Automatic annotation (TrEMBL), chain A:
Belongs to the binding-protein-dependent transport system permease family. It is a multi-pass membrane protein. One of its GO terms (biological process) is transmembrane transport. This is Putative ABC transporter permease protein. Residues 70-282 form the ABC transmembrane type-1 domain. GO terms for cellular component: plasma membrane. It is found in: Cell membrane. The chain crosses the membrane at residues 21-40, 74-95, 107-127, 155-178, 209-229, 261-281.
Amino acid sequence: MVGQSGFKKALTVSVFLGPSLLALLAFSIGPMLGTVWVSFQEWNLIRDAEFIGLENYRELWGDDDFRRALLNTLYYLVGYLPLVIIGGLGLALLVNSKFKGVAMFRAMYFLPVVTSWVVVALLWKWLLNPNDGVVNWALGLVGIDGPGWWTDPTWAMPSIILASAWKDLGFVMIILLAGLQSIDESLYEAAKIDGAGPWRRLRSITVPMLTPSLFFVVVISLINGFQVFDQVWVMTNGGPVGSSTVVVEQIVKNTFTFGRAGYASAMSVVLFVIILIVTALQMRMQKRWVFYG
Amino acid sequence: MRKLRIVGRYVVMSLCAAAMIGPFVWMVLAALKTDADIRAVPPTILPDPITGENFSRVTDAFDFWRFTANSVGIAIASTILQLVTATSAAYAFARIEFRGRNALFGLYLATMMIPLQVVIVPLFIEMRNLGLVDSYAGLLLPTIVSSFGTFLMRQAFLGLPTELDEAAFIDGANHFQVFTKVLLPLVKPALATFAVFAFMSTWNSFLWPLVITQASDRHVTLPVGLSRLNGRFGTDWNVVMAGSVISIVPIVAFYLVTQRWVIRSVAFTGMK
């Protein structure tokens, strides 16, 4: 402002920025640096920490549990992403036009999104209960012998994927719906005049115009997917026999169960680097497929 | 033909609705079933007789009302603090020119890339050193700032013309008055959007409350309390479901009241 002294301005800026900047430093940036620091230590949170350099990382490299957790996290993403993106797109297309009751349907599809992960995980753990769960009972009615779901190593991760996709479908739907509604109606009119059928219109107009929203959903889902934890913790606790263990669950167990804070921090650093690389790759790839009209 | 398509659409939508709502209905029905009923094979659909006993078993098993009060208190406190810290920072980024502003804002954006999961160990150690493990402050502090919210509110401020501020400054107002009296009232929709987000995310958060409250039962929040129920009543699904029902009632009520708003705001933030 005119005539304002440097000191007064600095004071004003610090009053406005101070609280959030301090909190960010204390609870995000500081701990991030802390994670790197702790990752070089051998530390059980009780004794004095001992500096061991890159030893934790070297151990991680040969750790079968961690490798399994990484692969399972990938497995989760590979199963979960197509399910929510395609399912969410389907729902969005379904509720895109104006007709009676559409707001109610949107609200219903969105309901799982506002529910906590713990409740969703508990609910699905029960629905997918191998013995008296309703899903296996319903499958039995049509002559299918339902699997052991989360008690069976083969089916534990699919169970988690199923519950997760169910919860997040509504979120993807809403983001894509917003994208759909910003598409100019006249594009469709023109295509209709040119004789393009519904399938052709979907492929040539809707999907390309929707790519920015799709991009956003994919980026967010991937970042969140790497951090999958709550539903694993509640539904399977990583089991049976490690078949659904994931990275964050390994971090929590190593810190609080095995007393290996340094080792867990090394895992955190690896996780962060992976998220960073994947996000950066996507940013670069977006030129290839994202269409900004 | 056209009519058939409309009917077809409603059928598909209703099937999808059944898939999304059905599990919740099943949950509520289960919460009302007796022990014998819940174990019946094949499963009974309607509870017969209807019992309210599961709810009292939940409230007896844990200090359920305390957990609820903890959840409500933390969610409200966190929402208010996030609104204060994020809007004031957003104001500085949108309306005050100072050296290093862009770099600093870049730093805020970068922290969006740092998930809690990655910093959980040092954060826990920090809280322990501050003597805040198993305390309300320890539960609350890491949630009081949101760089996403700062970003959102900055966008809202940038959408307002600077002539507003200039006119106020000529009338002798200072930054604080411009912020509270002129700009804040004009960004109410963005504030509401952000408040809804902040409340829901704190209400539903699990990992941090799980880690920071493990020493005792005093500061446990609903999701953590529920997950403990899971171990204790692993096979009594009616009790677990009763607990789940109690825990989603507030957030679902909140959602039903603000539903149009929530959906629009999520869509809005997704577009960026």
